[in-house]
């Protein structure tokens, strides 16, 4: 399961166009939340419990992957291709803003009310949010 969650970050292409790469990552993460909400909640609950089954993965494979992709983001920032910000916190914000829709589905649907597709609306919102955030 964790591999499926990490694949979109692995797919971030260092040679791609930075804004397009980050927005594609956001969309892929949001789609995972839509497609696998129970798995997202399972992961969140594992982390909330102190990650007794995943602590080695979180501090190992996950940490190394985030470090590698943060270096790509920082290079893009240094080149002036995206705005400067703490790269790892950018990744955290993508995780938080995409997985929220799965982890807090009941709350999201209660607040939005009937007739709303939270994921469709979220996709448009997150695209705008990150496009503006990333603008150099």
From TrEMBL:
One of its GO terms (biological process) is negative regulation of DNA-templated transcription. Residues 2-132 form the Transcription regulator YcdC C-terminal domain. It comes from the Bacteria. This is Transcriptional regulator RutR of pyrimidine catabolism (TetR family). Transmembrane segments: none annotated. Pfam families: TetR_C_3 (PF08362).
